[in-house]
Please model this.
Amino acid sequence: MDHNIIRREVTDWLEQNWSAELSLIEWRNRLVDGGWAAPNWPVENFGRGFSVDETQVVSDVFRNKGVVFASQGGPRRLAAETILIHGNDEQKQRYLRQTLTGENAWCQLFSEPGSGSDLAGSSTKAEKRDGRWIINGQKVWTTSAHHADFGILLARSDWDLPKHQGLSYFLINMRQPGVEVRPLRQMNGHASFNEVFMTDAEVSFDDLLDGEGNGWAVAASTLSFERRGFAQARQTSGVSVERVGRVYDEYEAELAIDNEPYTWYPQRQGRVDLVLDRAKQTGAIASASTRQEIAKLLSMKRASELAAEQAEATRRAGTNEVIPAGSIGKLAASVIARQAAHVHTLISGSEAMLSGEHSAENGMIAETLISVPAISIAGGTDEIQRNIIAERVLGMPKEQRSDTGPFRDIKRNIDS
Amino acid sequence: MQKEFTSDQHQFRESLTRFMQAKSTPDDVREQMTTEQGYDTKVWQQLCSELGVAGIHIPEQYGGFGFGHIELGIVMEEMGKNLFCGPYLSTSVMSASALIHCASEDAKEALLPDIAMGQSIVTLVMDNLDAPERVGSKIQENSNLITGTANIVVDAAAADSMLVVATSSSGLGLFLVKANDSNVVVTSRESLDPTRKLCEVTFSNASAQKVGDVDLGTLQRVWRDCSVALAHEMIGGAQYLLSSTIEYTKLRVQFGRPIGSFQALKHRCADLLMEVEFARASTYHAARLLDATTTIDGVAETEVYAPHMAKALAADTYSNVARAAVQLRGGIGFTWEDDTHLWFKRAKSSEVFLGTPERHREWMMQLMEGETS
Ligand SMILES: Cc1cc2nc3c(=O)[nH]c(=O)nc-3n(C[C@H](O)[C@H](O)[C@H](O)COP(=O)(O)OP(=O)(O)OC[C@H]3O[C@@H](n4cnc5c(N)ncnc54)[C@H](O)[C@@H]3O)c2cc1C
Model:
């Protein structure tokens, strides 16, 4: 569609509907009803079937006018995108609107003490009993579980089938007696992830996503959305407009909770944005070897953006080429973050021994140095991304498997 | 020059290993890192009295045992394996080295014996920890009064005296300042590595006693001694971390097999072993050369760049091993509860202490250029 037409239409709509005096939920419900909350979603599910470019036009208008966006944070987005593809109509009606309005917060209940890289090795039990699913087991590293209303849950519904076939995917209510969330502290001092214990937790039959035994295929979709998210920066809402009014207050309050687990995420990406300024301030930019390292870093960063743009263009052109963007983008984010930590170390020199608010950039450099190790683990490790690239993108021969046959006979960690 | 450790040296190492395993467990380290002083005085005194480590390399005429950098290195390496919390680096390594290279005979006789006994905690105050040629611009001496600030000083909160490198009218000098002088303000700083306590120290006309002259040459010697000692500590930590990581990969099962059976991890560990072995050999070699040039007068110095090579290799190796140690543990490795981050932070902090690997390689090049010209 012509971008000018879109721009006019959304501007007119905002004239009629946007008011900073609405409550956040009222406003976002209007957005959903108007079809502007997620214009890239299908017409039958609150969207307009817009392309990436068309959606961008809408976002730009919103941003210029300082309009509050639909909710789009981390696991909530993963849940919504997964439900959009794998959910039935009734599930879409039940959950999607509230993910857009922000009334529901989500978490991703995939990793377990015994299965991380090997997610399909999940040993959380899902059994049908008394007309519902009963869940028993433990999840771990669950980001935001302490704020979540619902979780996307991978669990084993059949122990006699080969491991990928015995899994099912559920939408679980986190606010029930059978679910206990305990925070876990990280090496950077934050506690954004948790252990989640499920003891006879209940899930209604209606909350099984895409059929019993299809859990692995559904989880694979979620993971590919997640990988793609790693290379992207988090979207921020309107700037440069005076932000007074109820909707802004409620939005700030929402962000304070939603973003609490993620305050260190920019640091785990390496804070490439700080490199040049700090190199100039400290005089480190005069060193020939440091200059080389900075240039390498900035080249990698820029090249990865260019490659992602190119992949996006190829995808839109609709050719049949295999596009490795997700895994390469995730691996690139790790490589870039590591090089950034190296460069920050060079720039800081002995000052890198300090941390806390009285150290460089209010402690952000120190936090970067001890947060970067997370990016090569979270959302699938570097090693797993390389395996995916080698086997699925490059078509290299697959590793011999030692985890075939009925799941109950496969070698596992003793404590799982 | 000796290429192997003697049986006495092996025994010395073994007794240290035993001590560290008993008194510097991860639980001990975690307890000490939350305190302001950063170490247990009783354990420190026991270590000094039972194993005589504080004066191991200090000449006998000043109350020490008269051994050399090799023995000092053994102590540092074993401490590094267990992240021992104590004022060893500040007192026995940095301060003793400054006294040995820079102090007058009288000052050595007055100060070294207490250090050798572990009775006096002394820290070396330099206003720059990146490069010796930058030291002295922020701290001045005038008529035996010291003024200025050093923003990173190891163990200053625990020290009873400080050896301050300051600029005076006659160039750089080494000055003794009592830590309890009311004109000395010691402020604890939050450190990336909580097992090594850092402070900012500000002097405002603090009374000082001159103990010796310093010039760039002697300061470089001090820097090299300390870098080699620190390299030992780093290879100790790197060896420990690599072996604990390899153990973990043998136990952890994913995809129906131990993760150590995946070639990607085997290759990474094999590469790291090579790095560790190179860093270790270079570090031992540097210690032997320091001993050869300090104990036999008049012998032409060879491979003067060796300390820089050792520090750079040890630093890179330790950081690489530490990154792998977190990575190969997956999510567990990123938690506070797991001990790996304690070593990771020590590795990061030691990497930049007394010069980044890049700087040490630059000095190495300058010295090699000099040797061939
Ligand atoms: C900050 C953070 C946030 C997270 N948030 C969430 C969340 O919200 N929800 C959730 O479900 N999970 C979350 N995770 C978990 C994350 O996805 C797992 O930690 C990760 O997939 C690795 O699993 P693991 O920790 O069990 O490590 P393991 O799988 O045990 O891996 C250990 C090591 O073995 C290697 N390895 C394993 N298999 C192979 C192989 N086939 N070939 C080569 N090497 C291999 C790994 O690469 C790694 O180096 C989070 C993790 C972090 C660090």
Confidence is low (pLDDT under 50) at residues 233-238 of chain A. The longest strand of chain A covers residues 193-204.
